[in-house]
Structure to design on (556 residues):
């Protein structure tokens, strides 16, 4: 059963956007074990008693199925319960597989379910979150225009049973849980392209129980999860309706199952990092641009156009009849042929990068604007380009480079004027991970040292015409970055693992891990622990947890 008390308590090692909202990832902590999702399998590695030892591995999919058309992307944990979320082209829909980990680190498959959905993939966003005991999953659905019963397209949940070839969906949404703005309702069903579904599942229930809320609108979407609500921005996906109606809506879907609300909006966000909830001012800050197709697939990589900061009072949400007035938008630097690279809200500031597509020079401009509206936005030329913006305490960090990896701090606490601070360059290298989870910053535990800490990022370094993988660590002291060393992957290490599912690492395969005072580097099938007590990190031990034989041979 799956209804035991959620124990043990598991610290988060994920670079989450919002505190209290755990994002699906490829490595998590359960008690004294690291749990790793890689290439269609789950692995456990013991960290107990200061050791590092592989314990167990199992398929991330149900026993006996053909997983060749499946992708297992994200993992979440709650107590000793492990949840793998993926998408199955073979059986159809978003797949939720649950496992139980015993105190000794051994894994046991519990059950598998499918949510009816189309592919949820995004190059930047994550489909799943855990808030408390609830699994929150966003999935899109599209109507069958062939004249079949539209109720057959509604969200459903199917429990997998041995020998089952296709899911047998039972509805998890009733008509009263489907919402559309009043203007769309007046126009009729022809104006609706997609059902945007937010499912909430009780992870601790013996039988997985899910309920869903559906909001209707155009196919383009960007979604963001706060501690108490899911926001879904719906807009045309890189196209406009022939009748010229380019209406867009922002939905607010409460996590407690309450009634959603909507407001008409302009433009579209770049990705989930374009959202910033401001509870103190009862407001939602959102960076929008007039050329964005949403966060589906690789859409965020092509956002462009004229940006604006939408500062939306929560009182604007209603039945969708009203639109956010022009006074809610603040025009921001940018232009028609300028790409919006990365964006982040940090310590009362909006930061985003501009890339001029017409020159293709590799030079970016960083824009920094105060959220309180004081002063004009600041513009900085960044010759190394901006490939990543991360929060680092009360400041921000830029990562870029052309042939080198360049780390640059952004000081956001000096007399209300930001400035680009001290940087550090790793020559002949490039960052090896583009997703947000590839980075982690651990602040100094002493509250009297807020500008101190340690950060990690995987890079590929060119040495003797060979690319090698390493986890690079930088120390931050009084906002000055310095080299803290690196932990290296074994050169040329490549396991013949008999992979049967998820054989491409779309979500990456390397992570810096800060677990208490211990520091690890996950690189492929290797886990390396470093001693960070001195002036530079040094390797303590490493383990290779790769499967030792093809999966088929193990089953025989």
């Amino acid at each position: 059963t799956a209804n035991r008390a959620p124990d043990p308590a598991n610290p988060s090692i994920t670079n989450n956007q919002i505190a209290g909202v755990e994002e699906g990832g490829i490595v998590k902590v359960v008690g004294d074990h690291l749990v790793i999702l890689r290439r269609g399998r789950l692995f456990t590695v013991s960290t107990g008693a200061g050791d590092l030892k592989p314990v167990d591995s199992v398929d991330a999919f149900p026993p006996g199925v053909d997983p060749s058309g499946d992708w297992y992307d994200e993992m979440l944990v709650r107590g000793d319960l492990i949840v793998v979320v993926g998408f199955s082209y073979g059986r159809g829909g978003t797949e939720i597989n649950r496992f139980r980990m015993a105190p000794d680190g051994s894994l046991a498959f519990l059950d598998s379910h499918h949510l009816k959905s189309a592919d949820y993939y995004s190059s930047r966003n994550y489909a799943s979150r855990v808030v408390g005991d609830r699994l929150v999953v966003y999935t899109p659905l599209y109507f069958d225009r062939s004249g079949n019963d539209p109720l057959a397209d509604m969200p459903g949940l199917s429990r997998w049973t041995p020998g089952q070839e296709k899911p047998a969906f039972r509805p998890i949404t009733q008509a009263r849980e489907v919402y559309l703005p009043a203007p769309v309702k007046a126009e009729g069903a022809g104006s609706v392209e997609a059902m945007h579904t937010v499912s909430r599942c009780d992870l601790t229930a013996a039988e997985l129980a899910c309920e869903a809320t559906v909001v209707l609108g155009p196919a383009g979407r960007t979604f963001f999860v706060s501690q108490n609500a899911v926001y879904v921005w719906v807009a045309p996906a890189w196209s406009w309706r022939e009748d010229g109606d380019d209406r867009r809506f922002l939905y607010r879907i409460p996590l407690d199952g309450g009634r959603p609300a909507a407001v008409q909006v302009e433009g579209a966000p770049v990705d989930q990092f374009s959202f910033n909830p401001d509870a103190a001012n009862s407001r939602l800050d959102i960076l929008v641009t007039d050329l964005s197709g949403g966060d589906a697939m690789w859409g965020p990589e092509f956002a462009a156009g004229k940006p604006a900061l939408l500062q939306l009072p929560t009182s604007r949400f209603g039945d969708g009849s009203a639109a956010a007035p022009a006074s809610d938008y603040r025009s921001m630097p940018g232009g028609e042929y300028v790409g919006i690279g990365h964006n982040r809200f940090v310590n009362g500031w909006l930061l985003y990068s501009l890339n001029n597509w017409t020159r293709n020079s590799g030079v970016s401009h960083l824009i920094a604007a105060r959220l309180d509206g004081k002063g004009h936005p600041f513009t900085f030329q960044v010759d190394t380009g901006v490939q990543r913006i991360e929060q680092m305490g009360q400041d921000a960090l830029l990562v870029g480079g052309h042939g080198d990896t360049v780390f640059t701090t952004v000081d956001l606490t000096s007399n209300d004027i930001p400035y680009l601070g001290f940087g550090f360059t790793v020559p002949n290298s490039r960052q090896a991970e583009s997703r947000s989870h590839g980075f982690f910053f651990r602040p100094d535990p002493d509250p009297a040292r807020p500008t101190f800490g340690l950060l990690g990022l995987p890079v590929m370094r060119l040495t003797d015409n060979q690319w090698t993988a390493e986890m690079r660590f930088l120390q931050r002291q009084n906002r000055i970055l310095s080299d803290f060393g690196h932990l290296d992957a074994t050169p040329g290490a490549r396991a013949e693992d008999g992979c049967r599912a998820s054989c491409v690492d779309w979500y990456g395969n390397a992570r810096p891990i800060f677990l208490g005072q211990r520091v690890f580097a996950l690189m492929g099938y290797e886990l390396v622990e470093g001693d960070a007590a001195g002036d530079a990190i040094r390797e303590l031990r490493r383990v290779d947890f790769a499967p030792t034989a093809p999966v088929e041979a193990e089953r025989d």
